[in-house]
Amino acid sequence: MALTxxxxxxxxxxxxxxxxxxxxxxxxxxxxxxxxxxxxYATDELQVEAGMQETFWRVWRALDHYKFDKPFLPYLVxxxxxxxxxxxxxxxxxxxIDLLERDLPDESLLPVEIIENxxxxxxxxxxxxxxxxHYRLVIALRYDAGLSYDEIAQSLKxxxxxxxxxxxxxxxxxxxxxxxIDG
Amino acid sequence: xxxxxxxxxxxxxxxxxxxxxxxxxDNFKKRYRYQQRVMVVLATVTGFAGLFLIVPGLxxxxxxxxxxxxxxxxxxxxxxxxxxxxxxxxxxWYIGNMQGNWVSSLAMTTWLGLFLLGCGAALALxxxxxxxxxxx
Lengths: 183, 136
Fold this sequence. Notes:
The structure holds 2 protein chains of 2 kinds.
Chain A: H1 5-16, H2 20-41, H3 45-62, H4 72-90, H5 97-100, H6 117-129, H7 133-144, H8 149-156, H9 160-178
Helix pairs in contact in A: 1-2, 2-3, 2-4, 2-7, 3-4, 4-8, 6-9, 7-9, 8-9
Chain B: H1 3-9, H2 20-83, H3 86-93, H4 108-128, H5 131-135
């Protein structure tokens, strides 16, 4: 359901003033947009659902602080990403730089010859799924949510150069997996 | 932007499974109601705790009002007594609490008159007496 900017602002304003139904409407509109982003970095559907539930609840609680100078989807994505990072930290799954730089297993390598058009995208999707979680998170924010490097850096509160490094290393690993893709 | 970048921007997006939006809305409703219940319980507990804690303060305030009322009654009585003209007799014409004393045998005005008379006499003497007598 497409929403014009005034309609979106009206819904958010009503939700900010405590209108529960307005917020449920926001969930209805934004859950299909948020889903692909979270799905990209989450490991399974259960994690996706838990992440979305927690994201929307956190958004509801912090909605008073939302300013209309930024679009709402990046705001949701930021909260979702930070929730996921908190979760990873708690689970002590945070990979160190050394781990992030590790080579992926050879058995997942696919010869470049068999990757053509849609097959390429399919292979790419699979390759992303095998990446470490922090890389998947940055990829989701960059390619699924369409955030700029600067926006990702602000969202995750990490230096922009780290974002660039994460993306470069992620792409290197993908290239290793699916073979060199000509630019 | 290289080819890999292009491909990644065109990755097939995952479609939200059927029923997930409704489940998210239900979850939100559930959490919202729970939060409301917690707020009601907290408000009630806090309200009663506040009332309980404020009772000694209210009692103190009540006692203060009683005390002020008593003080005001005294002031009011005194004012009435003064306004009834008693003060004029006791305080203006006679020095209070000195009944039986020689000072109170004369009215205040008499004492004042005598004092002024004394002052006048002193001034007159000072002016009229010959210089030689004053130097002596």
